[in-house]
Every structure is written in structure tokens, then in C-alpha cells.
Design brief:
The complex is a heterodimer of chains A (about 110) and B (about 120). Chain A has about 110 residues and is an all-beta fold. Chain A is globular, with a radius of gyration of 13 Å. In chain A, strand 5 and strand 6 form a beta hairpin. Chain B has about 120 residues and is mainly beta. In chain B, strands 2, 5, 6, 10, 11 and 12 form a 6-stranded mixed beta sheet that branches. A 4-stranded antiparallel beta sheet of chain B has the order 3-9-8-7, with no helix packed on it. In chain B, a hairpin with a 4-residue loop joins strand 8 and strand 9. Chain B is globular and about 45 Å long. The termini of chain B are far apart. The chains are: A mainly beta (about 110), B mainly beta (about 120). At the A-B interface, strand 5, strand 9 and strand 10 of A face strand 5 and strand 6 of B.
């Protein structure tokens, strides 16, 4: 089944403890992206990647890192999480070099930082 | 700059009524793509439709239909004979093919309640 798999689905962590949210897609998509969703603010892009080893900042990259060492994987790294990073996170991939082909989203990761 | 406005924050209708969700967009590009996504209470984001700027034909898929009008920069979504399972947040989105082709911009969403 064609899908984007995010893990974990739910995570509660403490301030400052490094964490990684994994994202993997099995559709051979070149483009991948991370979004966060917050009440009243909607979906905002954190980082995106047009291809392996090519990543760039989105609208809200502060406090996050990403890497794209393989086409299928695009992990989101929070080196020192803070409470303002409590959010619902989505990974997405697109079949085109850019997002115009439409996103397939992962199921989301609900992160709470205390 | 690209922008998507969903003026209706929340709508409630009784089951079997028709309901239209409005979406107005702004872009300077002549080539762009419009989308609708559904987010049910379970939280995942489900792709519903993609339209390119050169295709203004209305689309119908079962009880769902979409009206794309470039003259008014609108891409409205109608659910006919609504059902309780249609209750969700619906997002309209825009992706430009030119300079802004690195992201999809989402509207703030319309929360739809279908009352039994």
C-alpha cells in the first residue's frame, strides 16, 4: 500500500531532551515536507526536501533540523525541544519535484513538550 | 504573495442538507494548483482533489463537487445530501508552479458539523 509512515503517533517529552520523528514513504517520491498544525494558525511548513541531500527551510524552521540521506526517509529532529513546539506534526510527500502534484500525508505525530 | 482564505470558520448543517465551503485564493502566477483536503476527527489529512489553473471545468465525484472560477479566484466545494461522516475540517490549498513552488499554502480550514 502506497503510504507515508510517521512514528511515533504520540509523544510526550521533557524540555531539552532531543527527539526524532521519523518519516518514510514507499512511493519513490522526490519531494518531502514537514508541517506543523496549531489551533488558529493552520498548517505551516517547517522544512522541505526536493531530493536526496537537498533540504531547505520553510516558514517556521527555528528549533528543527532535517536530513535526507535516502529518498524514502525524511526525519524531523528537535535538538532541544521547548513547550512552544507542542503541536501536531505532519510529514508529506509529493510525486513531482515540487508539491504541485499534491501531498500524501502521514498520519501525524502529536507531540507534547512539558 | 500566495494566500488562501476560507472565510467560514465553522458551519453546522442538518444531515441531508447541501453545504458549500468557500475558498478564495491569491496568486501572481498564471500556473498554479488548487487542492482540497479533509481532516476527520481522527486527525489524518486526506487528499480530495487537485486542480490546475488551466482547467476550469467543474468536477463531480459522488456527493462532492467543486466549482473553480478564475474570474473570482474561487475554488468552492459543495457536499450534496450531507452525511454525519462528512463532519470534518476541510482545508483548501494552493501551490504555485513558479517562484513559490516549494510549498503548498493552506487556508485556515472550515470545521463542518453535520447534525443527525
Amino acid at each position: 500500500e502506497a503510504q507515508v509512515t510517521q512514528n511515533p503517533r504520540y509523544l510526550i517529552t521533557v524540555t531539552g531532551k532531543k527527539l526524532t520523528v521519523t518519516c518514510s514513504q514507499n512511493m519513490n517520491h522526490e519531494y518531502m515536507s514537514w508541517y506543523r498544525q496549531d489551533p488558529g494558525l493552520g498548517l505551516r511548513q517547517i522544512y522541505y526536501s526536493m531530493n536526496v541531500e537537498v533540504t531547505d527551510k520553510g516558514d517556521v524552521p527555528e528549533g528543527y533540523k532535517v536530513s535526507r540521506k535516502e529518498k524514502r526517509n525524511f526525519p524531523l529532529i528537535l535538538e532541544s525541544p521547548s513547550p512552544n513546539q507542542t503541536s501536531l506534526y505532519f510529514c508529506a510527500s509529493s510525486p513531482w519535484p515540487g508539491p504541485g502534484g499534491g501531498y500524501t500525508f502521514g498520519s501525524g505525530t502529536r507531540l507534547t513538550v512539558v | 504573495a500566495q494566500k488562501v482564505t476560507q472565510a467560514q470558520t465553522e458551519i453546522s448543517v442538518v444531515e441531508k442538507e447541501d453545504v458549500t465551503l468557500d475558498c478564495v485564493y491569491e496568486t501572481r502566477d498564471t500556473t498554479y494548483y488548487l487542492f482540497w483536503y479533509k481532516q476527520p476527527p481522527s486527525g489524518e489529512l486526506v487528499f480530495l482533489i487537485r486542480r490546475n489553473s488551466f482547467d476550469e471545468q467543474n468536477e463531480i465525484s459522488g456527493r462532492y463537487s467543486w466549482n473553480f472560477q478564475k474570474s473570482t479566484s474561487s475554488f468552492n466545494f459543495t457536499i450534496t445530501a450531507s452525511q454525519v461522516v462528512d463532519s470534518a475540517v476541510y482545508f483548501c490549498a494552493l501551490s504555485e508552479a513558479g517562484e513559490g513552488d516549494d510549498k503548498i499554502i493552506f487556508g485556515k480550514g472550515t470545521r463542518l458539523h453535520i447534525l443527525p
